[in-house]
Amino acid sequence: MIGFVSYLVFFLTITAILAIAVLGLNLQWGNAGIFNGGVVAFFGTGAYIMIILGGPERGGEFGGFGLPWPLALAGGAAAAGLLAILVGLATTRLRHDYLAIATFGIAIAIEAFVRNATYLTGGAKGIRGFERPLEALIDNPFLYSLFFLALAVVLLIIVYAGLSRLVSSPYGRLLRAIREDETAARSLGKNPARVRLEAFVIGAVIMGLAGGLYATFYAFISPQDLAPILTFQIWAMLIVGGAGNNLGAMLGTFVVWGCWVASGYVLSSLAPQELQLYAGTLQYILIGLIIVVTLLIRPRGLLPERLQVTKRPGPQNTGVISNAGEQYQS
Amino acid sequence: MTAAAPDLLETRDVSVSFGGFKAVDRVSLNVKEGSITGLIGPNGAGKSTLFNAIVGEQACDSGSIRFRGKEIGGLTPDGVYHHGLARTFQIPKPFAAMSVFENLMLAAPDQPGEHFWVPVVARRRIDRRESEIAERAREVLAFTTLESVAEEAAGQLSGGQQKLLELARVLMSTPKMIMLDEPAAGVNPTLTRVLIEKIEQLNADGCTFLVIEHDMDLVMRHCHTIVAMSNGRIIYEGDAAGAQSNETLLNAYLGATVDA
Ligand SMILES: Nc1ncnc2c1ncn2[C@@H]1O[C@H](COP(=O)(O)OP(=O)(O)O)[C@@H](O)[C@H]1O
Ligand SMILES: [Mg+2]
Asked: Is this complex scored with an ipTM above 0.90?
């Protein structure tokens, strides 16, 4: 029983951390229509910089600045934002397909970099050992895992509340308009290039925050964590939940991560020893299947984007909320 | 409008080419302040391309474009819009997944909440401006007879309603001049009458129009000046009466429509 509960706490913690990253992607893709094929680059940057800034001395390698955890976390998020500014200046003018390939390539390059820049990143073995916030004070491991879950959930709520506010403001309306038709927005005096870059950077900062939290939770980060599969999973979560809807993004994280973990469990207990190696592959196929089925049955996700999102001022607030027709896909 | 009215928009030798093909060829065009100027010409004459060049959506090979006496060539479309020159599209470009009302709210200028940090620090200022914009949006909805579809997804409107939405969106600010690209194409006769009435009303209030239109009858009746293009060049510039008796124009265009 206690085993199950502690596993549940572990599962929910990871879900909350991933949900933060999915919210970041939702701002970029769901709201602004920016196709980021390299989510893991920003997630990973946040993770590595956090642990380098906040971690202990590492026998001659770079880092060990021992910054207080909140500063280290913020530093990681800021570094992800900085990377996004560089990438964004170079690529956000690109069309979707090219942008997807460019960002995917950048993520691969960053993974290769951390794998080889041993002095900076510990190379293939990664960076291990990190004193998690308040770990010394809470010495019961189960209590500490509860505390960390609360911490992750609080951060998730802060990100969710901030993004909801942004999306329901005129800025959110501007993002959606640029997503719908950049040329039309430009003809009405808006500056899509500026707005797209901003949304790309804010989304990346949020992904960096999630990455920093992830590295904090495991007190460990390695190139393994930067594999392209994570980008794929985060996209699956957003598409299944409902791109453009922040609640949907969080629900999608729960559903997809739940399926991933459950399928991993089933496969590892059912598959014969010699086939265990291939079990992971089946999981990939399963995620692909979930995406396909969602697109067939609920193409706009479990919780589709609402038509009227901007908060209406004034006395004549009709409060009308309706769903955009299914035909406005694409 | 008087004959002595100054030029509001003035292009000099504007050329645009796609590869080796000259879509707009040394076009010099004047639009008098306060006029409704009609731009006619067969399909592919380069009219829409000229619009794109004027607002900076399409780069020019050469030439200069002046609006209210200031050079606007080289500006981006958002910059041109802020100078008071707005345009609509031949193929409507609604923000399809947004409601008609949101389409209008978006089109309004000077909303401080369109900077991402403002929603965090100054909710009040945003709300105040939103109220003003919403009031304007309701006026524009009434003016363009789109009230009944205000809460519908813009992509769901009929082609004619989308044309009206194109006009409605640019009316959320008060442009000095509006360039309309085939505003009546695909619009039913009732809506077309509404459209013409609205254009004349706005014109009476001081807004200058440059209108691409295929319906010769409409152009002859409602435009003060007519400019005709063919193969990227201007082949006629003058009044309606002159247009009807102009040989080149008849051959290049009027004959073609009769045949079609
Ligand atoms: N983006 C483009 N690339 C290549 N050719 C174009 C492009 N836009 C327009 N053209 C060509 O330029 C010519 C003028 O087009 P257009 O300005 O749309 O004509 P009009 O509006 O007078 O019907 C046409 O032959 C068209 O095929
Ligand atoms: Mg045209």
From this structure: yes
Q: What is the DSSP letter of B130?
A: H
Does residue B260 belong to any structural domain of this protein?
no
**Is the residue at B78 inside a domain?**
yes
Cα B114 from Cα A42, distance rounded (Å): 25
First to last CA, chain A: 47
Indicate if B189 and B229 belong to the same structural domain: yes
Provide the domain count of chain B: 2
Distance A256 CA to ligand 2 centre (A): 47
Strand partners, B29: B11
Query: Residues with Cβ < 8 Å from A19, sequence gap 6 or more?
Result: A156, A237, A249, A250, A253, A254
Joined together, the tokens standing for residue A56 give 């202990």
CB of A164 within 8 Å of any CB in chain B?
Answer: no
Residue of B nearest to A315 (CA): B131
Tokens representing B171? 């009316």
Residue A153's contacts (CB-CB under 8 Å, 6 or more residues apart) are A12, A16
- Condensed to tens digits (0 to 9), the pLDDT of residues B15-37 reads 999 999 999 999 999 999 999 99
For the domain spanning A2-319, the CATH number is 1.10.3470
Q: What is the pTM of this model?
A: 0.90
